[in-house]
Design a protein that fits this description.
The chain has about 240 residues and is mostly helical. The protein is about 85% helix and about 0% strand. The chain has twelve helices and no strands.
Length: about 240
């Protein structure tokens, strides 16, 4: 029989090691992705959502603070920057196609960004949400680092914005393909741009897994959405508040 004291000592040691949390994060995603593929990429089994759920269950079950977990897994968070910059490579390779669709991209970008801000604000007012929470919700449709920066500047709660942004991305990436099928939208470039515009990084990853052109346009949508929203949100607040 294994000594319980030894098991406890091993567990305490592992918790203090960054490699353990890094392995837990990557392992959770690998398991989630295998489930996702086993069920033929069923939208509601999005690997990001499942891996977040798995890690959350472990943290809650063993009463582990998020700060301790993040200290070990922050290397993955660090990689978000280089990965985002690396998206410039496929964009450069498909630049001619982007220029060809520049008019449609510009119109979709403005309408999509304004719509996301207006819907969020109107619903927040209808449900009588506090001002600080409204400010945290407004940048939800752009990638998390940009959304948190906008939230901090306008007086929101960056940590809450990050959570809402991730949830928005998961929902958009999970249900986006279903919506496109219902609308009979077949052009992959349009699908990709819509996912990147509304569901940022998670939507872009989803688009990349489906089609190269869709992934490129999703990356364009994600980048332009961040730039446009960072300009529109402060302007919108000056008008309404």
């Amino acid at each position: 029989m294994i000594d319980q004291q030894k098991l406890y000592s091993i567990w305490v040691y592992l918790q203090a090691e960054p490699l353990f949390w890094l392995t837990l994060t990557i392992g959770s995603y690998i398991i989630s992705d295998s489930i996702y593929r086993k069920f033929n990429l069923f939208p509601l089994l999005n690997p990001v959502a499942i891996s977040v759920l798995l890690v959350s269950i472990i943290l809650i079950s063993f009463d582990i603070k998020y700060e301790r977990y993040f200290e070990g897994a922050k290397f993955i968070h660090f990689l978000l920057g280089p990965v985002t910059v690396a998206l410039a490579i496929p964009i450069y390779r498909k630049w001619h196609l982007i220029i060809l669709n520049s008019k449609a991209i510009f119109i979709s970008l403005i309408i999509g960004s304004v719509f996301a801000i207006l819907v969020t604000y109107i619903l927040s007012i209808q449900f009588e949400i506090q001002k600080e929470l409204i400010l945290s919700l407004l940048p939800r449709s752009v990638t998390a680092p940009i959304a948190m920066g906008i939230s901090e500047i306008i007086g929101g709660i960056p940590s809450l914005t990050a959570i809402i942004t991730i949830i928005t991305g998961i929902i958009g990436a999970s249900l986006g393909i279903f919506v496109f099928d219902v609308m009979k939208l077949k052009k992959m470039e349009a699908r990709g741009f819509s996912l990147g515009l509304a569901s940022h990084g998670i939507g872009t990853a989803r688009a990349m897994s489906k089609d190269k052109n869709a992934g490129v346009f999703a990356a364009v949508g994600m980048g332009l959405s961040g730039l446009t929203t960072s300009i529109l949100v402060p302007l919108f607040l000056k008008i309404v508040m």
